[in-house]
Amino acid sequence: MTPFHLAFPVRDLDETRAFYGDVLGCAIGRSSTTWVDFDLFGHQMSAHLRPQASQASQAASDGKVDGIVVPIPHFGAVLLMDEWERLAARLEARDDVDWLERPMVRFKGEPGEQATLFIRDPSGNALEFKGFRSLEQIFAH
Predict the structure, then answer these.
(1) What is the CATH number of the domain that holds 66?
(2) What is the pLDDT of residue 131?
(3) What rounded mean pLDDT belongs to the chain?
(4) Considering its fold, how many domains does the chain have in total?
């Protein structure tokens, strides 16, 4: 699988570096005074300074997946279960995580069964991290 690239708005680069670097453990790549790149589980994420970012994210709507309300839009990463479990444990051990949905399993016993969690970054961007026992299950139906 090849990495994807996503550019997203943030209100403050210092708090964004702290969140993605310290909380999520992302390596920090190139940067300037208006943007910074992160390695989010092998994907290139570019945070671009937009002071109004938190206001825009509040306009997001919600969707439903397996009976659970999820924020739209959101982004994140698909991980193998061991890596997802380590991330979930690291996030649950912190008291500064803005949880939208704590770790859980959805589609239990069905094709595509997955672990998931939702958090919000300091700019209000919603992130989902999914865990699968096998990557073949990502598009199962």
Answers:
(1) 3.10.180.10
(2) 97
(3) 92
(4) 1
